[in-house]
């Protein structure tokens, strides 16, 4: 059983009673049943799109803004702002960017790296269709945000950050721990004030003495993959990514090993939550992406070498298992019949009617690959089938079977049976996703200053719906009989994660491509409740008239990146960034630009940028955490000190107990 994200309090009995959750739900939490009855007969895919897949893709990308870490260039939603205020590595590297995993405020290297790789894979396969519905600029922006974390994590060729943040403290061998991040239930923006033990986000390193070929290999794959769509827009940036990717691949292959064998406590806990099956598939994955990015036959030979050593990686496709995707990727970039044959053998495990089908389906047609994250896993395979179908032709018999499978899986999750597994899509969608910041936001945190155990109790046991809509998040999924619980205590159903949405987004783009992008109008933020009407919300960005992505503006040319003003923020020279931000935040452009670059206004003055009269040097401190200085009221400070002292006392007792 793969364990993901849970608190140590709620997890204490999981190993003993792993199947008890459904039998012992939260009091008065009803077992939910789909409003529509089971499938009768073989599934027949609609000839015309049943759902607005452009809307789904837009909202799926929006979810990544809810997960963003670091100093934000702009606020997409009122309830998320700057965070990861003390995310600095041992060597001074800025580790603030990227996304938080699930409901936590941590970054585990393997799932984060895979998310970046997969988001790039989506664009590689379906770029034109994404551009046609005006989502390409958004996709490229997200890729850079994730790649920024990885390039900074690659401090040098000896020390590479494999994890940021501390889930728990204590010996894994005795499974006695004091939770740190896992017992924080407030908004990321206030992590440093209220986290138990007072520990900031600490960086944990991969090195020759503490190897992890899967984490470093995935980092390499991610940067090589991101370089491909970015090259046509910024070749210099793409070259930097490829250079990192090559060096990371060399490190991963020269220092073979897995973090599951690490003696470091942080990676031992990572193994507990995110166990890696093997690392050979990540090395094949890395080399294959390097070949795709460089066309250097050395990397193709390396990919084939490692591919041959991971022949048993044929089950799920996820942050852990890359086998199925290797067949698809290698066929797409080589058209080698060997990879075609292996891809067909892989897919026949899922396709109904195949003599080698092994995957079971729920009564309403969900391919049930894993209980935990069942919708996400089926979406991963749906992406692979759509990508492969495009490579061999949608009109072939094999292509038709795969597009039918993919359509069935995606439409199941979008509401074919009366319930949407995507938050904020459709009329009947999850009301209580297991997600902390959309429940306890920095602008609406009723239990601020309360002991975290009490905050946890309210979060998990309350019947209160999320205070803000977590648009686009794909929830875990149902039981094998299509039933589920819609509450935060049963988090195997209600959990949301960055990796669930990664290949899912690609599958949605694939359906846009399959049906024809001309059948979909670009979707925008117009009419979405992003929290700006909340009493504690700041002023929203002042999007200009020529932005049709974040606004209700009309008349922008379709299929051109400039319809999103955010694209200008990505492509303008750094010395002009303050001018672009001044449009969004009048009177604050320079201070926003300084914060984004980890500088003070004095730094900008030093390089010759003239300050306006309205600009104040409100950004102070060191280069990395400059924008993150937050004034805390004295009463809050005293509460923080009290809680910290209390948790240190608990930690001391726990350590004493461990050593008895």
TrEMBL record:
Domain annotation Glycoside hydrolase family: ranges: 53-507
InterPro entries with a match to the protein in the record: 6-hairpin_glycosidase_sf (IPR008928), 6hp_glycosidase-like_sf (IPR012341), Glyco_hydro_9 (IPR001701), Glyco_hydro_9_Asp/Glu_AS (IPR033126)
Active site residues of this protein: 486, 495
Keyword Signal listed: yes
EC number: 3.2.1.4
Signal peptide: 1-22
Enzyme class per UniProt: hydrolase
Catalysed transformations (reactions): Endohydrolysis of (1->4)-beta-D-glucosidic linkages in cellulose, lichenin and cereal beta-D-glucans
Keyword Hydrolase: yes
Gene Ontology terms for molecular function: cellulase activity
BP-aspect Gene Ontology terms: cellulose catabolic process
UniProt entry keywords in alphabetical sequence: Carbohydrate metabolism, Cellulose degradation, Glycosidase, Hydrolase, Polysaccharide degradation, Signal
Recorded family membership: Belongs to the glycosyl hydrolase 9 (cellulase E) family.
PANTHER family registered for this protein in UniProt: ENDO-1,4-BETA-GLUCANASE (PTHR22298)
Protein name: Endoglucanase
């Amino acid at each position: 059983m793969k364990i993901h994200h849970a608190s140590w309090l709620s997890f204490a009995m999981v190993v003993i009673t792993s199947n008890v959750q459904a039998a012992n739900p939260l009091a008065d939490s009803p077992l939910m049943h789909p409003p529509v009855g089971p499938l009768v007969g073989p599934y027949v895919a609609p000839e015309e799109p049943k759902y607005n897949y452009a809307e789904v893709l837009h909202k799926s990308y929006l979810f990544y803004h809810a997960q963003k870490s670091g100093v934000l260039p702009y606020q997409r939603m009122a309830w998320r702002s700057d965070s990861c205020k003390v995310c600095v590595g041992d060597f001074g590297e800025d580790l603030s960017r990227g996304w938080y995993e699930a409901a936590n405020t941590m970054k585990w290297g393997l799932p984060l790296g895979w998310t970046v790789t997969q988001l790039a894979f989506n664009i590689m396969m379906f770029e034109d269709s994404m551009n046609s519905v005006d989502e390409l600029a958004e996709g490229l922006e997200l890729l850079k945000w994730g790649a920024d974390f990885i390039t900074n994590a690659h401090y040098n060729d000896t020390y590479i950050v494999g994890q940021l943040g501390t889930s728990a403290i204590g010996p894994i061998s005795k499974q006695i721990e004091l939770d740190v991040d896992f017992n924080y239930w407030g908004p990321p923006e206030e992590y440093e004030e209220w986290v138990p033990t007072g520990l900031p986000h600490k960086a944990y390193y991969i090195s020759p003495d503490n190897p992890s070929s899967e984490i470093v290999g995935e980092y390499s794959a991610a940067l090589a993959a991101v370089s491909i769509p970015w090259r046509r827009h910024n070749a210099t940036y793409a070259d930097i990514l490829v250079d990192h990717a090559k060096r990371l691949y060399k490190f991963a292959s020269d220092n073979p090993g897995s973090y599951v064998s690490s003696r470091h406590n942080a990676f031992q806990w990572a193994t507990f939550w995110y166990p890696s099956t093997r690392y050979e598939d990540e090395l094949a994955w890395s080399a294959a992406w390097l070949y795709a990015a460089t066309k250097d036959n050395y990397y193709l030979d390396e990919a084939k070498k490692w591919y041959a050593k991971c022949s048993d990686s044929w089950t799920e496709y996820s942050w852990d298992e890359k086998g199925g995707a290797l067949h698809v990727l290698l066929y797409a970039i080589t058209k080698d019949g060997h990879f075609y044959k292996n891809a067909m053998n892989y897919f026949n495990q899922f396709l109904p009617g195949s003599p080698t089908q092994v995957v079971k389906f729920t009564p309403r047609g969900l391919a049930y690959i894993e209980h935990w994250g069942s919708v996400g896993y089926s979406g991963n395979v749906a992406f692979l089938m759509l990508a492969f179908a495009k490579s061999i032709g949608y009109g072939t018999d094999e292509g038709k079977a795969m597009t039918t499978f993919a359509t069935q899986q995606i439409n199941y999750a979008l509401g074919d049976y009366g319930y949407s597994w995507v938050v904020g899509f459709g009329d009947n969608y999850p009301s209580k996703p297991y997600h902390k910041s959309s429940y306890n936001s920095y602008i609406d945190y009723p239990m601020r200053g309360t002991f975290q155990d009490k905050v946890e109790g309210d979060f998990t046991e309350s019947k209160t719906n999320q205070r803000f809509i977590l648009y686009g998040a794909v929830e875990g999924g149902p039981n094998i009989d299509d039933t589920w619980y819609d509450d935060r205590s049963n988090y195997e159903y209600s959990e949301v994660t960055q990796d669930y949405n990664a290949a899912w987004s690609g599958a949605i783009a694939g359906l846009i491509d399959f049906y024809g992008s001309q059948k979909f109008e670009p979707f925008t933020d117009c009419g979405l409740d992003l929290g700006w009407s909340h009493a504690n919300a700041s002023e929203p960005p002042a999007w200009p008239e020529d932005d049709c992505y974040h606004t209700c503006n009309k008349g922008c040319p379709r299929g051109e990146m400039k319809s999103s003003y955010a694209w200008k923020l990505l492509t303008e020279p750094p010395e002009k960034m303050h001018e672009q931000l001044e449009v969004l935040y009048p009177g604050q452009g320079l201070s926003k630009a300084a914060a984004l670059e980890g500088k003070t206004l004095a730094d900008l003055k030093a390089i010759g940028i003239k300050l306006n009269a309205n600009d104040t040097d409100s950004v102070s401190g060191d280069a990395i955490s400059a924008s993150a200085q937050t004034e805390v009221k004295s009463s809050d400070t005293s509460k923080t000190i009290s809680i910290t002292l209390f948790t240190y006392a608990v930690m001391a007792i726990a350590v004493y107990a461990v050593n008895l």
